[in-house]
């Protein structure tokens, strides 16, 4: 390219790939001014106009507005500073678009009503402080006011969702569903009953010896039995059931009888609420944790084993 050559708008268009109309538009606004004019009055541009137009096109494709583009090409603004500010603005736009996409995908997957879609949209748009308040209100409804509340501090932390600053669509959808569950009065009440039962057991366990939640004891005893393929109704299951019912009896300070086993069935069914497991799975998605192992098969096995022996 000849550095001293002058180009008409048509020649400049061929060299830059821009249309004549676009170059004239930029020229009229002083972004790429002509170097000279031909005897007939047509605009002529030098080689610097080619480089300037290439920069203008790149900046426009990146989304910068014309006033900012002009300041950059005139060196009134530093390109690195403009790029950093624009990148930050784009990050906000990307986050908003991800939230909108996640809500629309959730609506499509769930067949939501307009009212449900509006709720999902509001939940997805909550600020970090608003999300914390919603979560805090849920956890307070479940754990608040119990004498054993301090002992549940670790459990409460493990049940707290932390949506990242730039969440993936799957995390946004999980957060929306988790927030909906947190607002559900029936789910709150079910979780509260489960925690109250555990707190009562823990209080009794403090008298009789070191506490270990009965659900954990049942899991530890019944899990291997389930894995080994032991039928819960078979005699091979007798010592396994005896072990975790004995633990529960010691915890409550009561005899290991049919009434205690019926009570344990109710306790395990409460722990085995599928909504609780769903909450923990959604929580893992939001927080980027590994998916938790489902304990439903273990508790189902244990409940069946207890029912068989209670009827005997």
Overall tally of domains: 3
Q: What number is the mean pLDDT?
A: 86
Specify the biggest β-sheet. Answer: 2 strands, antiparallel
Strand order of the largest sheet: 1-2
Number of separate helices: 15
Molecular structure report:
With 312 residues, this protein is mostly helical. It has three domains: 65 residues, Orthogonal Bundle (Multidrug-efflux Transporter Regulator, Chain: A, Domain 2); 40 residues, no CATH class; 178 residues, no CATH class. Helices cover 70% and strands 1% of the residues. The protein has a two-stranded antiparallel sheet with strand order 1-2. The longest helix is centred in the N-terminal third of the chain and has 32 residues.
Any key phrases for this structure?
15 helices, Multidrug-efflux Transporter Regulator, Chain: A, Domain 2, mainly alpha, 1% strand, 312 residues
In short:
The chain has 312 residues and is mainly alpha-helical. It is 70% helix and 1% strand. It has three domains: 9-73, Multidrug-efflux Transporter Regulator, Chain: A, Domain 2, CATH 1.10.1660; 80-119, no CATH class; 134-311, no CATH class.
Question: What are the SSEs and their pairings?
Answer:
Layout: H1 9-16, H2 20-28, E1 36-37, E2 43-44, H3 47-61, H4 66-73, H5 79-110, H6 114-124, H7 128-143, H8 153-158, H9 169-183, H10 185-208, H11 214-227, H12 238-252, H13 258-271, H14 274-287, H15 296-311
Antiparallel strand pairs: 1-2
Helix pairs in contact: 3-4, 5-6, 5-9, 6-9, 7-10, 9-14, 11-12, 11-15, 13-15
């Amino acid at each position: 390219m000849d550095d001293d050559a002058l180009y008409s708008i048509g020649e400049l268009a061929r060299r830059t790939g821009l249309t004549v109309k676009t170059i004239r538009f930029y020229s009229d606004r002083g972004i790429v001014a002509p170097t000279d004019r031909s005897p007939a009055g047509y605009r002529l541009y030098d080689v610097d106009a080619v480089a300037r137009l290439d920069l203008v096109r790149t900046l426009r494709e990146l989304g910068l507005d014309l006033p900012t583009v002009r300041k950059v090409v005139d060196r009134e603004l530093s390109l690195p500073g403009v790029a950093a500010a624009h990148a930050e603005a784009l990050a906000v736009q990307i986050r908003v678009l991800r939230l909108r996409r996640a809500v629309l995908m959730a609506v499509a997957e769930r067949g939501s009503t307009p009212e449900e879609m509006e709720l999902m949209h509001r939940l997805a748009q909550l600020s970090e402080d608003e999300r914390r308040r919603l979560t805090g209100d849920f956890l307070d409804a479940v754990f608040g006011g119990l004498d054993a509340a301090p002992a549940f501090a670790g459990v409460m932390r493990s049940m707290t969702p932390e949506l990242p600053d730039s969440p993936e669509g799957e995390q946004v959808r999980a957060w929306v569903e988790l927030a909906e569950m947190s607002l559900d009065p029936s789910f709150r009440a079910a979780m509260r009953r489960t925690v109250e039962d555990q707190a009562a057991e823990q209080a009794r366990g403090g008298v009789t010896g070191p506490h270990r939640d009965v659900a954990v004891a049942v899991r530890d005893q019944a899990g291997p039995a389930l894995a080994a393929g032991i039928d819960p109704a078979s005699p091979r299951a007798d010592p396994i059931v005896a072990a975790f019912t004995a633990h529960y009896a010691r915890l409550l300070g009561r005899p290991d009888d049919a009434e205690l086993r019926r009570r344990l069935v109710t306790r395990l069914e409460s722990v085995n609420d599928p909504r609780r497991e769903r909450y923990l799975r959604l929580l893992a998605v939001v927080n980027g944790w590994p998916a938790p192992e489902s304990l439903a098969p273990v508790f189902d096995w244990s409940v069946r084993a207890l029912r068989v022996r209670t009827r005997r």
